[in-house]
Amino acid sequence: MSPLPLAAAVMLSLIASNARAQFCPLDAGDTIQKIVACKPEVSTADCRALAQSVGCSVVRELPSINAIVIELPAFKADGAQAKLLATTQVDLVETDKTVNWLKGVTVAPPAAAAHFEFGDIARGILKGINSLKPVAVADPEQPWGIRRVNAEASWTSPRGQGQSAAVAIIDTGISRSHPDLAGLVLGGFNALDPKKPDAWDDDQGHGSHVAGTVAGKRDGKGVVGVAPMARLYAVKVLDADGNGGYSSVIAGIEWAVKRGIKVANMSLGADEGSEALRRAVSAASKAGLTIVAASGNGGAAVGYPASYPEVLAVGASDIKDGVAEFSSRGPEVDFIAPGVNVKSVRMEGGWEELSGTSMATPHVAGLAALAVARGASSPAAVRAMLKRAATPLPGLSAAVQGAGMIDAGKLQ
Fold first, then answer.
1. N or C terminus: which one in the chain shows less Cβ crowding within 10 Å?
2. HSE-up of 402 (CA within 13 Å, CB side)?
3. Smallest Cα–Cα separation from 202: which of 362, 345, 369, 363?
């Protein structure tokens, strides 16, 4: 290289560094993350360079939607967004919001109610839950919800044990040590911290409870799941408080797709949608991932990602085959499943009862795993098999139950 080009390169580097220092001062104050999606014809490298030109740092890439997540000073966010959208390469810029994804899909057990901030509506829900008394069952390892979906009928079938199915629990992580889950978790991913991808242990408890309903061991102790022969992957997208950014949830979905997992349980939900999340869900479905998500506990409109057409949205029923008062409703609901006083794994050891569409969702995810084991090779095929096995509950509208309650013995 001749001296002139070398000098020019050094000068350009210094100019870029100086511009970057001015854009990202040390005393910038609050920062914000933006998801920058480029058009399909723009390479990942070019998209990254373009996004980085207005950001302090690149947080992660989201290849399924050709997007880059950047961090930048909050006071410069609007200007940076306008600059990016003015180019011909970018077609989406949105704030990577951090929300509590569990607040609207899980109701605390009555014994723990004092530790949560509820309103009058939630107190009414808990009062109704307390009035329900589970009946005695012949097999105490089977919680009432497992019996209600007739999971055992599928275990005895040579094609129905879920031996070839894996389920990604996109949640708060999974306990590695609980006896009902030990040995079932094949691996995992921490989407919250790119520097610690293997730190996927549960630190909240929600993911472990969900995992137990999907695939708890059938060993005569504790609780058994819908698909006890299935295997699990812990995809940690939420922290100990149930918080996570849209980009973390998208990264978790992408991780599951990349590993060829066919079913994902998303017992989480947000009141507000995201175009980036919508695109990621669509891409995942096209890649072969069946996403099962909680419809929400607002008693009103279905939340996100359950609202997206590719997702199987699940409402909650009670032990009397009525719809849970809290269960969200709308044309997006696909199925109803047990969601009141659901007994499953307690992260710290033992078991506990929780209620919510969060608890209904893993029943359907477990059934989806059984459908995959029976030959359903695509999200459309899984949906079709589950619908054939579902029966509407009497007296309930489609807006609260979709196709109805699924019977594992009818999967074919």
1. N
2. 31
3. 345
Cα angle: 405, vertex 408, 411; to 5 degrees? 105
Annotate 152-172 with b (16+ C-beta within 10 A) or e (fewer): bebbeeeebbbeebbbbbbbb
317, 394 Cβ separation under 8 angstroms = no
> Which residues fall within 8 angstroms of residue 275, CB to CB, at 6 or more apart?
92, 94
Q: What architecture (CATH level 2) is domain 110-410?
A: 3-Layer(aba) Sandwich (3.40)
pLDDT at residue 259 is higher than 90: yes
**What's the pTM?**
0.87
Each residue's pLDDT tens digit, 156-174? 765 544 455 899 999 999 9
- Residue-range domain boundaries for the chain: 26-96, 110-410
Q: Give CA–CA dist 96/256, Å, rounded.
A: 20
What's the 3-state SS for 299-332? CCCCCECCCCCCCEEEEEECCCCCECCCCCCCCC
pLDDT (tens digit per residue) in 93-125: 999 999 999 998 877 555 433 222 223 333 333
Residue carrying structure tokens 């000068």: 11
Contact 292, 314 (CB under 8 A): yes
